[in-house]
Amino acid sequence: MPTLLKGRPRVRGDVCWQQRRGQAPELWLVIVDASASTRRHGALANCKGVLAELFDQAYRRRARLALLTASGRTPQWQRHGLKASTALQPWLQQLGAGGGTPLLAALAEARQWLLRRAKQHPHELQRCLVFTDGRLQRWQALAPLPCASVLVDMERTPVRLGRAQQLAEQLHAQYWHLDALSPRR
After folding, report:
1. What values do phi and psi take at 28, rounded to 5?
2. pTM over 0.85
3. Is residue 105 within 8 Å of residue 169, measured between CB atoms?
4. How far is 17 from 20, CA to CA, in rounded Å?
5. Domains of the chain: which residue ranges?
6. Closest C-alpha to 64, from 78, 91, 85
7. Model confidence pLDDT, tens digit, residues 114-126
8. CATH level 3 topology of 22-181
């Protein structure tokens, strides 16, 4: 697109082409473990604060968001790769915890969805953030997610099992603890 140098052009040299340097579009897939165990010690409440900041960052970076919650019997998609907006705030306020932990099913579904999405949008930069306390009965070896991933450990009980860190290792994800991301209230 031609741009004008120094206001109104007087000679041909005042008109130049300026190449835009666009960033690759980004997709952030957020998986939230909203099982009953995440209510303990305010873990889900603090997670909501971190998610609010995350949604704000996604909005500022013009990233697309996909949201998947793991609670009850099956994971539930809340959003599929739409632009981040303030429309997420009511969902975030209503996010509650209860039921079981279908986290493994959510991870499997997310893996398949990310692979399909990568074929449809090959230039998109994908990232996955998993929020969980790791309170699963047992699991077998997990395949890594097909993109850069971060697992945020929400476990805040006095006796910590450390399963979220094991999950992060199997998923080849960076490991962070929720307490390092938000101050305890």
Report:
1. -110, 115
2. no
3. no
4. 9
5. 22-181
6. 85
7. 999 999 999 999 9
8. Rossmann fold (3.40.50)
